[in-house]
Amino acid sequence: MAATAMSADGKPYDRLKDMKAFDESKAGVKGLVDSGITSIPPFFIHPPHSLSTIVPTSSNPNIIPTVDLSGIDSDKRPVLVQQVARASRELGFFQIVNHGIPLKIMENMIGAIKSFHEQPTEIKSSIYRRDFKRSVDFGSNIDLFYSKAASWRDTLQVRPSLLNNFEPEEIPEICRNEVLEWDKEVKQVGEMLMELLCEGLGLEKGKLKKMMFLEGRTIVCHYYPYCPQPDLTFGTTSHTDPAALTILLQDHIGGLQVKHNGEWVDVKPVPGALVINVGDILQILTNDEYKSVEHRVLANSYHEPRVSVAAFFNTSNRDDLYGPFEELTSADKPALYQPFALSDFLKRFFTEELGGKPFKNHYRL
Q1: What are phi and psi of 245, to 5 degrees?
Q2: pTM for the complete prediction?
Q3: What does DSSP say about strands 66-68 and 12-14: parallel, antiparallel, or unpaired?
Q4: In this model, does residue 200 exceed pLDDT 70?
Q5: Half-sphere exposure (CA, 13 Å, Cβ side) for 343?
């Protein structure tokens, strides 16, 4: 998109200058809201064809299944394997309850992330950056300078991996204990889910763990403040996840939607539940058995902020080559993707528009 366009009043609008000023303020979207704005800056306004899809959803609210994981180590396990595999094949999304993480820890995590984002700009700005070279950073819109339009959210990212020379002290003190506790808990849930997902394909249950898919974690803590013009922008634009698996903790506000049969379906918050979705990497590894589907977050029209925490699971072996599992390919169903390095996949993700062509398509044969 051109850097200079015409504004609503007919005067020249320098989009790039406006975006740079926003980025250099290091205040994020929360800073815009705190300034008292009543209309959003033009570079947040999305194209009409995208905005036209913001309509009330009339679909069955029960499309996204909720799987109760109680009894996972009993004779109920085969049924749970079947439920998880079916949801991953048909929808790519489901919610889980009785997953083992206490409700208090979930509430503490949401509260701590909210507290971080509501600190004064001068405190948060010390870790505001766009190079992602450290294990912790704060920012707004990773694709700000690549996207057609920005989205209405701010983000704290934590990468608790040896890949990034992770130092827990880098996590802001206001949420450090909660983030470290959450990482420990969510890793256990990730292992449990990966076993179920493998079993659902007839694979050895520890296959993904042996491939180090529990070790390349990224915890992404989003803050969606009130938007004065929610019909003109998004909280997060439509995308698929650059991960094997995503575990999402969302608060009670709502706004997450999944594309299903060409329609946008709400993923309504369920008390005590975690939202699970298949990422692009797992769709490739399973040769399209499991589906990584488009999802988005609507701009927040409530005066109360929305907070969510996504844990993305990837392998820590980023330079090895990955492709469809041999066990899932045959003469009747050949490999649908060429081998790729995760480092190449992630490089594409961080240097292209979030809402562009699904990244897995780069490797499709």
Answers
A1: -145, 145
A2: 0.93
A3: unpaired
A4: yes
A5: 7
